[in-house]
Amino acid sequence: MSRALIEDRVGEIRQRMRSVAGHDAVHLMAVTKYRTAEESLWAVEAGVDALGENRIQEAVQKWQHAKPPVPLHAIGHVQTNKVKYGIKLFDSIDSLDSERLADAIEARVAEVMPVMVEVNMGLEESKSGLHPAQVLPFITQLNRWPHLKAEGLMTVLPARRENSVEESRRIRNYMQEMADLWRMCRDEGLPWAPLNHLSMGMSGDWEWAVEAGSTMIRLGTSIFGPRPAAGAQDAANK
Ligand SMILES: *Cc1c(COP(=O)(O)O)cnc(C)c1O
Fold first, then answer.
1. How far apart are CA 18 and CA 16, in angstroms?
2. Could you tell me the pLDDT band of residue 238, with boundaries at 50, 70 and 90?
3. CA 69 vs CA 43, 45, 131: distances in Å
4. Is residue 73 part of a domain?
5. pLDDT for res 232
6. Number of domains, the chain
7. Index of the ligand 1 atom closest to the CA of residue 222
8. Considering 73, 163, 200, 222, which has the largest number of Cβ atoms within 10 A of its Cβ?
9. Is 51 in the pocket of ligand 1 (CB under 6 A)?
10. With a 6 A CB cut-off, is 202 part of the ligand 1 pocket?
């Protein structure tokens, strides 16, 4: 993907975000898994607000010598034994979904680490994240980890199985429930959980997410084009 194309795409997405949201405050995160540092920085130049990386090790390889000039978020499932490698590289851990991970982060950071609590809204076995019913109890107790500050909720919703009215209704219902859950938790007014962000929406569904109230969308494909095939990805990670 060329620099000019990335710039065009980010510009178009920005414009569309503004028209869907009716304002300019929704954050745009470029998801840079399997992208080079160079491509990722072109997205930063084009004006994205943040970068998101799925794998700690990939992020460490890419960014350990020169941190990107916008906040770097961890958005993939974090195995607790990987925390020690690179947690300090990140400005936010957006995939907090267990006490064990909270323990691991707490043990590694000296300053306050912003986190988002990940919610498995579609109750999919393949996905990480807390059951929606566990979210408020978890957040209420998050002051047990004095270095964590809950800046938001994050979710990866089910992919659309087909293009049908029922299917779009199903996905949009999840989005609505997610937004309701976020507002309910935020309204608790817990000092350690300001929950300013609802991170929801990817390339295939972000416009619906913004309509439902998302404050941060995470786009990979629609900025950078299709990701390399799985085999090539594995080779690239060796
Ligand atoms: C890959 C990924 C994205 C971006 O996916 P696209 O469909 O390419 O926009 C967003 N969030 C998470 C957690 C991801 O793993």
1. 5
2. very low
3. 11, 9, 34
4. yes
5. 55
6. 1
7. 9
8. 200
9. no
10. yes
Domain range for 118: 3-225
pTM: 0.95
In a domain, 234, yes or no: no
Give 189's pLDDT tier (boundaries 50, 70, 90).
very high
CATH of the domain at 193: 3.20.20.10
In a domain, 128, yes or no: yes
Whether residue 155 is contained in a domain is answered as: yes
Give 52 Cα–ligand 1 centroid separation in angstroms: 9
Distance between CA 220 and CA 35 in Å, rounded?
Answer: 9
Are 226 and 9 in contact by the 8 Å Cβ rule? The answer is no
112 residue type, one letter = V
Task: Choose the weakest-confidence range: 27-41, 73-87, 152-166, 175-189.
Answer: 73-87
Contacts of 170 (CB under 8 A, 6+ apart): 158
**Index of the ligand 1 atom closest to the CA of residue 227:** 8
Tokens, residue 37: 């540092």
Ligand 1 mean position to 100 CA, how many Å? 24
Does position 229 have pLDDT exceeding 80, yes or no?
no
> What percentage of the chain has pLDDT greater than the value 90?
89
Q: Name the token pair of 75.
A: 């958005």
Tokens of 167: 């299917």
Other CB atoms closer than 10 Å to residue 163's CB: what's the count?
A: 7
Token digits of residue 198: 């609802």
